[in-house]
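$ fold --in a.seq
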Amino acid sequence: MSRTDEIARGIGVSMQQIRPGEASEGQRILVVEDNEFTRAIAGRAVEMSGRSVVTCGTAAQAYEALAVTAFDVVLVDLNLPDATGILVLSTVAAVLPNATRLLMTADAGGGRAASADHGDLIERLLLKPLGTARLLSILDDLEDI
């Protein structure tokens, strides 16, 4: 049993349940952030830019969202209450290999260490506080790729 399977089981999710959902038109963004204020601001900014967004506060909620939607971009906080952002991004890489995986954290040292150790999972490290203009600029850049 892989570490991802062990953690998923520990938070009550079966990896068999996590299969990419149906695609829809436009850029689909998943924001996984346990801080309610940060999650709400990021979600609202993405929504106001005309993109589709789902926001979650835990890894378990993110796994539920991944089961029903094929996201283009997944933005995950490093430190979640029920798992690490690295674990979530590893699951995303397995089920949505073409999704852009972004890791955000307020802990610059921890984020850089995570990025160095797991560079294959993290396409960009974003340091918080992450302003809405910067977030939208990053998403715009990703659309142009």
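$ fold --in b.seq
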Amino acid sequence: MTNRVLMEKFIEFCNTHLGIETPCTVRLTKDRDDNGIVTTAYYHIASCAICVYVKDRAIMDVMRSVAHELVHHKQNERGELNGSPEEGADGSPLENEANAKAGEIIRIFGKQNPEIYTNNKWYNTYKMLEEKVFEIEINNDIMESKVIKELVNNKISEINKLKLEVLELQDKCSHKTVEVKNVSDGVVSLRKVCATCGKIVGYPGHDDLIEAGY
């Protein structure tokens, strides 16, 4: 299993273990300065984005940073973060929770995937890539995390359900009031549309067009 696949698997595990419900972008980079990393990682509250420095770090250490920041994302979901310096201070309740949870996640995941303890350097594999960062977000060219996939699939299911409900209502409608409107179905053209349910019921005739002012 490559480091990239192993990291994706780990992030999916964190999502499930922490019960994360909202999208969060995770960026792993070997460029600290260009990404504004002061220590080894950070979590941006407003954009729900995590950035982790990976150069010359063991993959287990990188994973611990990812887990730590994902705990902060969960705290953000619970409405516990407002960006004050006290929140990130050593020994604060929020930092203590992030440290403890990250350690717990590493122990559980490590029992299931012991290779994280023998893989010395994430960067040994990563440096062979031409790209500077590896991101997990909604992008066809980059990997997606499980939580984002699930959220997108849920939204698609909701939309499809609404479409079915609309079709059912349209089938029950008597279409008593019909208007002539421009409708796009690949190209914009005039159609007869039900004023009640919005269903296209046919093409307008000559009299319909005159009545509609065309």
